[in-house]
Amino acid sequence: MRRTAALLLIGNEILSGRTRDDNIQYLATRLGELGIPLHEIRVIPDIRETIVANVTDLRARFDEVFTTGGIGPTHDDITAPCVAEAFGVAWEFHPATYDMLKEQFGADFNPARQRMAKLPRGATPIPNPVSRAPGFSIGNVHVMAGVPRIMRAMFEELAPTLKQGAPVFSRTWHTLNLFEGTIADGLEAIQNTYPQLDLGSYPFHREDGRRGVALVAKGQDKEAVEQAAHAIYTLLKEKGGAPLEGEPPP
Amino acid sequence: MRRTAALLLIGNEILSGRTRDDNIQYLATRLGELGIPLHEIRVIPDIRETIVANVTDLRARFDEVFTTGGIGPTHDDITAPCVAEAFGVAWEFHPATYDMLKEQFGADFNPARQRMAKLPRGATPIPNPVSRAPGFSIGNVHVMAGVPRIMRAMFEELAPTLKQGAPVFSRTWHTLNLFEGTIADGLEAIQNTYPQLDLGSYPFHREDGRRGVALVAKGQDKEAVEQAAHAIYTLLKEKGGAPLEGEPPP
Fold first, then answer.
1. Per residue in B50-102, pLDDT tens?
2. What's the whole-number average pLDDT of chain B?
3. Stretch B168-190: mean pLDDT, rounded?
4. Is B177 helix (H, G, I), strand (E, B) or coil?
5. Which residues of chain B neighbour A180 with C-beta distances below 8 Å?
6. Domain carrying residue A22
């Protein structure tokens, strides 16, 4: 069974270049392992109309939607009310979350922190073992923190509850000093033999002068992946390459 | 003058988690410097309908659209014909590019490599000082390679030709052991005083236990950025922080 996921990163820090994204690769890898591969990623600013429109669009087109960012206590943390708006439900105090955060913060449980106890009506909290204030799931939308350490902890709380799809298998060869233009025709012939697979060609071109190409065969049909990987190995040898299994060195 | 940019990353390697993106932060930073800040990023697979739909959508909504990936010689390199389709023009040999690549490759100028000499009709090549095969601009869409070293070289060829907007100024303070919930109200008051700025609050939570927050004041009104930065410094001191200028340590 094919299942699909989209990822929506909410906030200005990646768009401005202030921080380098540290969430995409983790989630892409984990979702592939769970058989819910990522089909689209978007990074958007924390503008109400933009968030609502993107949540509405993505949740209609993909089986699962994951968001990161915008669930803290400051004025620019508007993801939760926007998701509530996208679902047409109230954004209101979640009693169990309110009680938990009240106990945690004591006299410091001020109005800003109380905002973190508000969820869209009908949402299920995603536990946060790092700093307590939860994420949440509503329908097929899963709202997580943007801080990588917290996002990962939330995702691993959420993962066992997700409906998994068929796992994706892949095999990769790389070779130095052999270029895409030399193997393109042979690779296309292999792709045509195995239309149920995705064959990818990824050139690398390092600052130190090392150049070459990585070739990936990927799909849910494990036997076809093995056969295509063998055909790729044979092609690379024929063209004078010295294929090595796995990713090229960094 | 406000100008806006969108970035479209085309290809499966980031969606699958195979590679970590190495282009977003570079382009986000450079576009901010040029006064054409990024407002949206999308990562999409190399599927024809998906590429055409995204190019069509983004070029209508943003002043400039930059794409990376999918312009090599292999079967999965379909960005150029898709951009041609989005513009409703032919994808055809560009004579000067054909002659240049023919001279470069000599007897190895096979049909796969000849594809790299095809551009949408009316496109202007973006020179590629690293490996020759060019990117191109058509209308407000700028098509570049995905390999980071080549993308950067192409972007720097393109940059002097772009219409720049007003530069964005920013100042950042960070402090350890002071949390968003403590300063949220004060920060919102500063945001309300300077509605023309974007004030951002970015908590950090490191594996080694260091925690704190980075506060950013950003906008095109330099005087207001300075005043807001002073107000943020004062707020952090009041709340018991030890503010330091600049980003938190990694």
1. 999 999 999 999 999 999 999 999 999 999 999 999 999 999 999 999 999 99
2. 95
3. 94
4. coil
5. 72-74, 112
6. 5-161
CATH of the domain at A86: 3.40.980.10
Q: Is A191 on the interface with B (CB under 8 A)?
A: yes
Q: Residues of chain A whose pLDDT is less than 70?
A: none
Tokens of B75: 């079967």
Sort out which chain B residues have CB atoms less than 8 A from A147's CB and list them: 203-205
What are the beta bridge partners of residue B6? B40, B65
Name the pLDDT band for B167 (thresholds 50, 70, 90).
confident
CB atoms within 10 A of CB A54: 20
**ipTM computed for the complex:** 0.94
- The predicted-structure confidence for B44-64, as pLDDT tens digits, reads as follows 999 999 999 999 999 999 999
Max Cα distance, chain B (Å): 72
Question: Which positions 89-118 of A are in contact with B (Cβ < 8 Å)?
Answer: 105, 108, 110-113, 116
- Tokens 């949540």, located at residue: A55
**Residues A52 and A121 both lie in one domain:** yes
Could you count the other beta carbons within 10 Å of the beta carbon of residue A99? Answer: 12
Tokens at residue B102, please? Answer: 């023919």
- For B18, the 3-state DSSP assignment is coil
Residue B245: Cβ within 10 Å count: 10
CB within 8 Å: B15 and A21:
no
Residues B188 and B91 in one domain: no
> Among residues B161, B179, B207, which one ends one of the domains?
B161
Task: Report the alpha-carbon distance of residue A71 to residue A182 in Å, rounded.
Answer: 50
**What part of A 112-171 touches B (C-beta under 8 Å)?**
112-113, 116, 130-131, 147, 149-150, 168, 170
Out of A161, A192, A227, a domain closes at: A161
If you count them, how many residues does chain A have?
250
A80 closest CA partner among A131, A107, A118 = A118
- Non-local (6+) Cβ contacts of A7 within 8 A are A24, A27, A28, A38, A40, A41, A42, A65, A66, A67, A68
- Could you tell me which chain B residue has the CA closest to the CA of A51? B40
CA gap A86, A88 in Å, rounded: 6
